[in-house]
Amino acid sequence: MNFFGAKPYSPEMGELEDYLRSHEGVSVDNLFHGSEYFFILKEKDLLVLKMTLLRVNASPLPDQAYFVNEDFLLESKGPKEDSWNMSCMPAPKGSYDPREALKNKSWSIHGLNLKVLYPEEFSK
Questions:
Q1: Domains of the chain, residue spans
Q2: What is the distance, to the nearest Å, from the Cα of residue 41 to the centroid of all Cα atoms in its chain?
Q3: Which of 23, 65, 89, 115 could serve as a FRET partner for 106 with CA atoms 20 to 30 Å apart?
């Protein structure tokens, strides 16, 4: 649970796709907890390689940002001098197994495959 009381997703909240649609365009912290839903999102083809960004809670430090690479690992080029932010910064340089990087951590996701979330919009 985060500071504002938002709970990470669980099936009791409804279908995963509906949950993701309800957060479209809204920055919501801690949408998920642990690595389980990373792999569910992967199976549902919701991740866009080299575009999907995960923001992992590193409290009390700024959150750490990773991109999903072509091997479905979490990757970061590392922080640069101008990338420091009180809220979020790139993770240390490297590629990370999502099972380890997300273990016991809350995280948010941005840049999902809209064709899967909104198929009717792309069938026109």
A1: 11-122
A2: 10
A3: 115
To the nearest 10°, report the CA torsion of 60, 24, 79, 7.
Answer: 20
Angle at 54 between CA 52 and CA 56, to 5 degrees: 175
Task: Give Cβ neighbours of residue 84 (< 8 Å, ≥ 6 apart).
Answer: 62
CA 23 vs CA 17, 26, 45: distances in Å:
10, 5, 18
CA-nearest of 34, 44, 38, 103 to 72 is 38
Q: Encoding tokens for residue 16?
A: 């995963």
**Gap between the Cα atoms of 73 and 95, Å rounded:** 6
The C-alpha atoms of residue 44 and residue 27 are separated, in whole angstroms, by 22
Q: Residue holding tokens 């979330």?
A: 117
Encode pLDDT of 41-74 as tens digits.
999 999 999 999 999 998 888 899 999 999 999 9
